[in-house]
Amino acid sequence: MTIAEAPMIACDTRSAVDWLADGARSAPRPDMVLAELCDRLVRCGIPLWRVAVFVRTLHPEIMGRRFLWQPGAEVDIAEASFDFLETPAFRDSPVLAVIDRGKAIRRRLADQDCPKDYPVLAEFRADGITDYLASPLIFTDGAVHVATWSTRQPCGFSDAQFAGLQSIIAPLARVAEIRALRRTATNLLDTYVGNHAGERILAGQIRRGHTETIHAVIWLSDMRGFTAAADRLPPQFLLDLLNRYFDCQVPVIAKHGGQVLKYIGDGLLAIFPIAGDGADPRDVCGRALACAREAQEKIHAIGPVVGIENVEAVRFGLALHVGHVLYGNIGSENRLDFTCIGPAVNLAARLENLASKLGRTIIASAEFAEHCKLDLEPLGEFAVPGFTAPQATFGLRTETPPLQE
Q1: How many angstroms separate the CA atoms of 193 and 261, rounded?
Q2: Burial class (CB within 10 angstroms; exposed 0-12, middle 13-18, buried 19+) of 81
Q3: CA 167/CA 161 separation, integer angstroms
Q4: Quick one: CA dihedral 93, 95, 100, 105, positive or negative?
Q5: Degrees to nearest 5, angle at CA 234 with 60 and 224
Q6: Which helix (H) or strand (E) holds 363?
Q7: Sorting pLDDT into bands at 50, 70 and 90, what band is 8?
Q8: Could you tell me the sign of the dihedral formed by the alpha carbons of 115, 117, 122, 123, in that order?
Q9: How far apart, in whole angstroms, are the C-alpha atoms of residue 353 and residue 347?
Q10: What is the pTM of this model?
Q11: What is the CATH number of domain 195-396?
C-alpha cells in the first residue's frame, strides 16, 4: 500500500487547539508545553514518533534552543551557539530551508520516490520514520522558527492526521512566541543587570525608589594602568583585553555566589549578599576572599600584552568591605539603574584607590578582616576622603607588595 492509498483515520485536534489558544497554562515551562501538546495529539489519534521545536533567541552566546520529544522520554533541551550556524548539520538541514522560505517541507519517507535532498532524511529513514513534516512557526514580527513532526506509522500521516497537525501550528506559534519573549526579556536582563536584579525587575520592582537595605560583602575592582594602556592600544585590541580581563572575574564571582551589578569603565562593582539580619557573615566573606584569590590568579595568567611596546602585564586592584547598602532602582523617572549605593560602597571605592598607593592587589576593611583574620594582616590606618576617622586596612598575608606605581 502506498501513502496515497492509506486509509482515512479520524483525527480531532480541537481539544489541543483550544488548550493552546488558552495559553497552555497547565504547562509553565516550554519543555512542559511540548510534552503535554504531544501527549494530547497522540490521544487525538496522531501517531507521533519524534517532534522537535527550534526557537531562535536573543542571547550574546546562544543562537537558539531545540526541544525534542519522543514517547516515553523527558523532553530533551539543547542550546546551539552561533558557531552552529556554519556547520553542515545546520546549513544542509530542512530546518534552515524552512527558516529561509517560510514554507513547510514534507517528505514522505515511506514512498520510494521521496526526494533525498537533505542528508538528515537518510538518518530518519534508518530510524524507521515514514513521514516527516517541518512547519514554520511565524511570530508576529515575521521571524520564522520551526517545528518538525515525524511518525513511524507504516503509511505515514493520513490526510486527517496531517490536517490535524496543520490546525495546531498557528496557536502553537502564539504560545511559543509568548514564552520566547519572556525568555528573551530574562536573557537581556540577566546580561545587562544580572540574574537577581533581573528577577526583581520581572517581578514588577520597576518604580524609582523601589529599594531595600541589604547586608553584603562589597567587591570593587579596577584595572591598574588602564588610562595609560588606552593611549597606547588600538581600540579593538583594548576592547578585547577588557573582555578577557572581565572574564577573569565575572564567572568566578558568580561561582562563589556573588552578583555583578555594574561595569564602570574598567571597574567592576559586585556584592555577595549576607542573608538575614544577624546572620554569620564568615562564610560569605570566606567565599568572597577565595573568589578574589582565584580572580587574581586568572588575571596574572593573562601576562604581558603581546605585540605592544611599553605596556605592562594586566594588573588589577580590589577592595573588599562588609556593610549595609541601599539596593534597588535609582535614577531619573524614565531611565533607571538597578544598583547599590551608600557609605559602605563609598568606603570600598576609597580603599580600592588606597590599594594602588600601598602597592597591594587586594585590600580589605577592618569590618571584612574581622571575619578572615587568619588570611589577612594589618597594613595600618589611613585617612580616606569623605570619612572623618582614619580607616584600618588589611592585606593578604601571602602577598608580597610589588613596587608602587
Answers
A1: 6
A2: exposed
A3: 10
A4: positive
A5: 80
A6: strand 362-365
A7: very low
A8: negative
A9: 10
A10: 0.69
A11: 3.30.70.1230
